[in-house]
Amino acid sequence: MQTSSTHGEQQRPFPALTPAQRYHLDVYGYLVIENTLTENEVGRLREALQRLKRDFLATGDPANALVRKARVSTYKPHHMHFAHVMESDPAILDYLAHPRLVAMAEELVGGSVRIEESEAIINSRDPHANPNAPLAYGFHTGTRPQYGTYTENGLYHCNFVKTLTNLTDLGPDDGGTVCIVGSHKIQCSEQEIIACAYEDPSLIHQVIAPAGSTLLFGEALIHATGRIRSDRERVILIGGYTPPMFQAWNGQEPSADFVAQTPEALRPLVSGSDKWQWKRRFRTLGMRAQADA
Ligand SMILES: O=C(O)CCC(=O)C(=O)O
Fold this sequence. Notes:
21% strand; binds 2-oxoglutaric acid; 7 helices; 3-stranded antiparallel sheet; 23% helix
């Protein structure tokens, strides 16, 4: 991962995905790429998030506290969801600006991107949940097919994309993100699609991957937090990306101070300063992936 001092030389691969990875993404609406981060990078990020958690808990009122400009958007003893973590530790900006991950987001958006949100979740098994209860997830989307998606060169694009990296190993009982495959393209009621998935759970895929793997998807895909049945804690880090003329998520616009001290080469990514000068870029399916720049 690059450090702040080398951000000025940042080059991103294009296309970032192999033809088979791109096809998988088009068909299912998501892609899991294993080991995008090194063990050191995973350790550094996990430490940054555990420190953030400790500092929030130390305030005595985590649900209402502000720590290094981050907030807690969901607070339950077994589930903490942090919002706007970008300014809280340099390791997190390094993650959000990781050339290969940003390149993956750009490929799905269809051009240059800005960071729309930076979030993290540290969660463990709900001690009150019945492990044998029927399947029930908090399925949701951030946009829907048609107004948030389009096709170019026959390939699917979405203007609201997430890279979600697990910093702990995810086995089948460890609550990896779940999604309803194909829902990124289906122009039907979300509730009716969800009902189909509960009727046929083979339509629900779950992330199972070693620590340091990245789930890439567009927010038109119906998705949710998985259910943890094991005793292992899950730690994930989330980057959201949009074209530069879009706004950051509510309350996630970077502070002026942070933008001012961001290396110049990363400012458009962090602040969306390119605005309507969106650099569109599209691949064809058969284009070979460029090795990491
Ligand atoms: O907890 C998860 O795995 C899902 C996160 C999520 O729903 C999101 O980033 O929109």
